[in-house]
Amino acid sequence: MIKAAILTIGTEIMEGQIDDTNATFLCQTLLNQAIKVIYRMNVEDKLENICLALEFVYDQVDIIITTGGLGPTDDDLTREAFARFLKTQLVYDEHLWQDITRFFNKIKYKPAYNNKKQAYLLPGSQAIPNKNGTAPGIYLHQPPKTIILLPGPPAENQPMMNHWVIKKMHKDIDLTTKLYKKIFRVYNLGESNLTKLLNQYQTDQLEIGTYFSQKGWIDIHFSRYYHENIYEVLDKEVEKYFHILKENQINFSEAKDIALLVLEKLKELKKTIAFAESITGGHLSAELVRYSGASQVFAGAFVTYSNDLKEKILGVNKETLKNYGAVSDQTVSEMAKGLAAKSAADYNIAISGIAGPDGGSEEKPVGTVYFGFNFNNEMKILKHQFIGHRQRIINKCITYVYHEIYQQLCSELS
Asked: How do residues 265-290 score in pLDDT, each as one tens digit?
């Protein structure tokens, strides 16, 4: 198995000014090549700190990739740090300088004297072409190590990685290791309870990880790096875990966005859907229309946040709101019925709740949510008590609704 470390260089990252999206991109790219990232580090623009990071990872990995610190300024020190760590001197490359100069001419800028430092390479390395900026990368392959230095801007380093570095690595490194990976999504179950269930069966054939999402689901990752062809053996191991989930009536799906799964099932059944939203403020609808083809199944939605609009648009009885409140089974039932009368959709879903942090009571605390599911003119009312901050409660409401719809669609297809 090939192991890698990613170092993202930049004081602006350490100060929280920007997020480290480069490392996320590189992790995903290397995973696709069955290269395992075992270290992902952020380092400020200081020579000694970059060298300390290199000292920590160097003997533990086969590939080191850095982003950032290849610019022309005094605090761009990644090249210099590698030269110091490797106990060598940077080498000026006149041809590379001419390439940099041509790029400046193309964009009608005159290079500054400081830009010349970008034409220095590590001995024995190659420049990685950068078609979108002035900072070339550096590629050094000295078995058993491969060192790759990339500029910081994603618009520059991503094309360099995709179009040059990956091809070069395949020429220089034995990348015959394969990665078996399957991800499945579990709903409406706590992570500790899921782990307890999965522990009923033990295997040394797979690495198993469970990862909780703020949107209210858990992803189960089954993975294994392998050389020999054991794909079918690993599939059989995963099936044993599926059996445990099914035995315990745990709902799971492939690791696609639940709204996309609902969209696909609706298209398969040639059914339509509509929403009457209160607590979610239009986000239920937004989840569906993110995907192409939504117009084939989505009739529309009403965001009736106020009681006044619940009455005027959906026909909710004023007495119902007065006696039971906007957050009640009676209200969502009338919301769903009123929606069905206006939309003529096959599935009409209403939702009303308290997202907080204000508005809760002893009887109806923050996180209380009522759902009205009108499936093919058959009404089902559900209540759920969510916990968390405002956005987390809203996110969980959205997942809850789509999961209920998905279950209904699956049952109709079975």
From this structure: 999 999 999 999 999 999 999 999 99
